[in-house]
Amino acid sequence: MDWMYTLSGFLVGLIVGVTGVGGGSLMTPLLVLFFGVSPATAVGTDLLYASLTKTVGGWVHSKHGTVDWKVFGLLAMGSLPAAVIMIVLLKYLALEEKTLRSLVTGVLSVALLATAAALLLKDAIKNLARRKDGTVYELHHRYLPAATIATGVVVGALVTVSSIGAGVLGTVALLFLYPRMPAVKVVGTDIVHAVPLTALAGMGHMALGTVDIVLLGSLLLGSLPGIYLGSHLSAKVPERLLRNILAVMLLIIGLKMVFYK
Q1: CB atoms near residue 149 (< 10 Å)
Q2: Number of domains the chain is built from
Q3: Which domain holds residue 233?
């Protein structure tokens, strides 16, 4: 096990513990740009890494009752089949290494830039759903289930190819679709939804041979204590400041990924 992987896992875990976001958004490009890991292997390994680390958070939210299981079910109805379809497509197309590399880095770039924008505009998007009199704009309840399933499809496809999207983008989508839902429940629902999605996509990548088990173990060795420490520091660190710094970092990384070869 390379101690640099473990250190990277610790630092990313620390950021996730403090801000609640940044796992896949930081880990996958870090593995690609800094360690030279193949983009497909970085995505596959990060998906299993995310499923294992988010299981603990999902269990805590479930225990505290901060999960909307109906919304979770609707998201999963879209995301899980989308993940399976994307894995089957990747298997069926059997893309050459160079083509697969271009596909993954292209989707990764878009996902990073979208995540950076979502972090920067998170509060603005939330306020967008609020009228001047304090009431909120809401999608008609008749269309909410279909819109939630469609959101799941987009997130599922994006996560399977890039390992990014289940965190920030999923949260922002839920804030927009369910403006009356308490923030803690939005986060809890999104985390619990990410667990089966990243596990399924990760196992699919394992079947494709794009998971490095030794690398996964090294990352977990550092990230689990990092997340634990970060969660205890979160109350003492200005979350908005860190969120904006993280957004700028992702913007820079996303632009660098655009020109990655």
Answers
A1: 18
A2: 1
A3: 3-258
